[in-house]
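A reminder before we start the practical. When you read a complex entry, don't treat the lines as separate problems. The point of joint prediction is that each chain is placed relative to the others, so the output describes one connected object in space. Small molecules and nucleic acid strands, if listed, are placed in the same frame. In the example below there are two entries. Take a minute to note the order of the lines before looking further.
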Amino acid sequence: MQILGLYNYWIFIVLMMCGFYVVISRGNLVKKLVGLNIFQTSVFILYISMGKIAGGTAPILTGMATIYSNPVPHVLILTAIVVGIATTALGLALVVRIHEAYGTIEEDEIHAQSEDEAL
Amino acid sequence: MLLSLLVVTALAVIRLRDLFAVVMLFGIYSLLSASLFVVLDAVDVAFTEASVGAGVATVFMLGTLALTTSREKTPGAHKPLLPLLVVLVTGAALIYGTSDIPHYGDPGNPIHQHVAPRYLEDSAEEIGIPNVVSSVLASYRGYDTLGETTVVFTAAIGVLLLIGGARRRRRSEEPPRPDREEEDA
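Here is the predicted structure of the whole assembly.
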């Protein structure tokens, strides 16, 4: 238990960095959004890991269990998931509009086109 | 075990160029994280993640792919070295930061000391429903949920303005063609 005490947090960092890498290194806009979602889910895992108590059960009061995991992070993450899907939907709508306007969803091609227009 | 599967899926998302496969893997990733939430006692979060993350988000992304293109261009000018360096440095700093974090699953952690015990002890009397997550969500922190609804409403308006408005504008610019009208209907 002592050795594995931080394992969840390390995996959270690895996942978060995977998402971060996709966001900053890939030019494709849909892939960037997938990376952003991976980043976001890793934060959910961090919060839910914090709320877990060893030997506890889900925080539903049945009268049979004595240890319950912490319900507060669960509530926060429920809100975060719904807000996350809202921002993802907005981002995807922007991608569709960009594709209508420029005919591509690759970042460098969009930059090239807008530079051509500026000249 | 689940955590390792999550990492494998995330790495596959980085490697793959076919966006359809990337979106499908993202759905699998969401479902895996939902299973992880069940293991971590967060059942409400798990079914929200399974329906919203694995279901709705995947459908939205597939819809976007259908409207745009499903193939990622192979990178030419992009150099992966600088982003990799940034990611590694940030990751190392975060891992260094975890050395101060209280250990996973310990009931003496500071997070379990302050608000949560009150909810667990008093919510059954004060609100009257056994599911503590629901009573916190709908009653103690009801304003959060109201704000969340506002965000979703704003996002829905934004999406409709971005996509619905463009379609109407294009229709008024172009001369009406019978086959086009049929497609949209």
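Discuss with your neighbour: Chain B is about 75% helix and 0% strand. What might explain this?
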